[in-house]
Design goal:
By secondary structure, the chain is mainly alpha-helical. The protein is built from 13 helices and five strands. Strands 3-5-4 form a three-stranded mixed β-sheet.
Length: 320
């Protein structure tokens, strides 16, 4: 279930992105290089005093840099990032997470179309899906959980909405804000980006464990979380806010209502750690950023030939 929870990001969840160094690298990380290789006990000099070691290390480092640069790409907003996870593999792990989620909530999943709640969620999701212009095999599931205010989208287009979220979203525009944000995470391949970062950092920790004191390695792990993983997670959230806002505008929802939704989110949240310790931006900064993007989102809404928000709501209410 831990694998599945990696993808089930909550709107209010604030946690470190990865596990502890012991879990990533195993028990040997806590054993120093002399304990493992016994150079000094055998009267041999440390390996790094051998000139050949530096030749090999230089070749390996150069190869690593070439590999890293080869896998640099631009995100949909133009941000440079490392990604060595293929779309096929991302969908494969998304499918595994999907099956685990279905198994976990099987008794709580509302049958498709059986309730007004389910139909309302599907109506909003379908409008957003139509605006994505992608070929994912999209599926929508509503989970009856009145106390759970959450929604997430797995790689491959599997959408899950917990019923408790609807008490905060309140209307179609509010729900579209949340779903477009979660859909944007997958359109931007943020799951692949985070897995790629985990792959890279895990490899670097393994290499460092041969040469660095375990206590210093623990410190380095904490600093990488603070300086690399958490800022990257917040970047992904901000990117999903921007892409999601543009998506809901393209689907003829009212971007201004995204500000109102996050104001309700702020009222609903209990407390959160300081932003620099958080996987998500603070709600205040989120509201400020979204408000600044609303004019651009309205331009995209106009470009999609959407009628006024009131007429749009009346039209789609009549159709569905």
């Amino acid at each position: 279930m831990a694998f599945c929870s990696y993808f089930q990001r909550g709107l209010f969840a604030s946690r470190s992105v990865f596990s502890s160094p012991r879990q990533i690298l195993g028990r040997n990380i806590h054993r120093g290089p002399h304990q493992r290789y016994g150079y000094n006990r055998q009267g041999q000099p440390p390996i790094w005093q051998d000139r050949r070691f530096w030749y090999y290390a230089g070749a390996a480092g150069t190869t690593g840099l070439i590999y890293y640069e080869y896998h640099i790409e631009e995100s949909p907003t133009g941000r440079r990032r490392f990604n060595n996870v293929s779309p096929a593999y991302e969908k494969q792990i998304g499918q595994q997470a999907y099956l685990q989620t279905i198994s976990q909530y099987q008794s709580q999943i509302i049958p498709a179309g059986s309730t007004k709640m389910d139909r309302d969620v599907r109506k909003v999701a379908q409008r957003l899906i139509s605006a994505t212009d992608t070929e994912n095999n999209w599926e929508v599931h509503v989970i009856y959980a009145p106390d759970e205010k959450n929604a997430f989208v797995l790689p491959g287009g599997k959408i899950f909405v917990f019923s408790g979220l609807l008490s905060v979203t309140q209307d179609d525009d509010g729900l579209a804000t949340v779903l477009s944000h979660e859909i944007a995470h997958q359109l931007a391949n943020h799951s692949a980006e985070k897995l790629s970062q985990a792959n890279l950092l895990g490899f670097l920790y393994i290499v460092a464990s041969f040469f660095v004191d375990p206590n210093f390695l623990q410190f380095g792990r904490a600093m990488s979380t603070l300086l690399l993983e958490l800022p990257n997670s917040r970047q992904c959230e901000q990117e999903a806010d921007q892409l999601g806002l543009y998506l809901m505008a393209k689907a003829c929802y009212d971007p201004q209502q995204a500000v109102a939704l996050w104001q309700r989110m702020k009222a609903a949240e209990l407390s959160s750690p300081p932003q620099f310790l958080n996987t998500h931006p603070s709600t205040d900064s989120r509201i400020e950023n979204i408000r600044a993007l609303v004019p651009q989102a309205n331009m995209k809404r106009d470009a999609a030939n959407c009628p006024s928000p009131d007429l749009t709501k009346a039209f789609f209410d009549g159709v569905f």
